[in-house]
Amino acid sequence: MKTILEYLEQTEKKYPDSTAVEDLEGTMTWSQIGRLSRQMGTAFAARTKRGRPAVILAEKSRTVLAAMLGVVYAGCFYVMADPSLPAARIREILHILEPELVVTEEKHMPLLQETGFSGRICLLKEAGRENADPELLGKIREQSRDTDLLYGIFTSGSTGTPKGIVVSHRAAGDFIFHFTETFGFTEKDRIGNQAPFDFDVSVKDIYTCVMTGAALVIIPRSLFSSPPLLLDYLCEREITTLIWAVSALTLVSSLKGLRYRIPEKVKRILFSGEVMPARQLALWREALPKTEFVNLYGPTEITCNCTYYRIGKNFHEKDKLPVGSPFPGRKVFLLDEKGREISEPEKTGEICVTGESLAEGYYRNPEETGKRFIQYSFEDGSRQRCYCTGDLGYWGADGELYFSGRKDFQVKHMGHRIELEEIERALEQIPGLERSCCILDTRRNQLAAFYLGEAFPEEIRREMKRKLPVYMIPHRLFQVSSMPLNKNGKTDRSYFRKLLEEGKACVQKD
Length: 510
Fold this sequence. Notes:
Helix content: 25-40%
Distance between the termini: 63 Å
Strand content: 25-35%
Oligomer: single chain
Radius of gyration: 23 Å
Number of strands: 27
């Protein structure tokens, strides 16, 4: 099996003068990024031992991408830390990783000092001035295996402590191979990168380019607050592919961005992270009728995605969008509450995944790893390692898999177990309502819904009474002017929860 660096060097040799990555500041060819990565790798290898984590505290950019690959050349695995994170959160990440090396920029030094980090620090500009040492890098490569860790990504933990998911070269390489083959990526593609580099959606962007020679076009985060500027950027940069979170796409369509300008060069849009509202999907498909749309599903722990569904028909607002069928090399199955496999249609169970590309687990957290990554005995007698996602789903009569919510989005209210996403799905079918976020106000033991759109509360309640039982209708409705996203491009539930806790939410009058 190959390491990621072998794919990089093949692409560098095949397309040396083609654009590898570009941002607002300029571009780098494959030969340039390969050369800079080896220079940085030499700098990092002198400051930390092989196999150790190296934290990169910086916003995404061309140079940061070279630093990520440089960490890999040093025989280590990288963990991105977004400077927008609070110092306390970064401190927790550093505590878990215990890295010998943090790579950063001068402007982020005060933040790093606030975390109390006492290890080695290497500035990006210093690493870029290092001369590559082929002998040193060669010795590291001789020891490298495809089972070595490639990257770590931190997610929130149920205990309040972040969990570091670590993924190997083999896991990433296997998935990206199937991903690029399935959707026909080539060196002519230009991928518009929406996701931050510490979010696993970016893994598809980055390594699809590394494997095929496509160009990675980094989209500044600031553009997502202005759909016209964002659409201008997509058109001017001639983007061919969007691999985005659902909320990033709906931000454009719900704010009427597609009436301003259509990114006509885009030939495929792949989305994930949340359930895509049928109304917003219809707006995108109407604007780009020749574009391929794909619904992707899968958590970080299985390396990006395990299933996909090519959208070939129009979906009505009452329809559910399938998450589809497994990628090659994967087996997806459902378990009931007693740990028995579910085969009959329409019966809900926990979605579990086995086969290629499972993460190695949670870094330095064997207890949590053991809970979620289990050895499962199938009816044929085989015993395989699998990941239990915590997501609920069911097989449709059409043989496709359908997502039906998270275990941790399930609440008990008025004696009933309720999926908050079911309420949101009903809200988003109401005319004049674009997006919604429903949470349980634990202080009042009431359901509260925040919504974006022009619908009046009286209309919303009337429609909700037609769709849902009384105990699932939100007690309070809050009209908002925007639906904030967290840094991963998903609806920021914690923002609305905080508004309620601080008494800053204002009920919309009928």
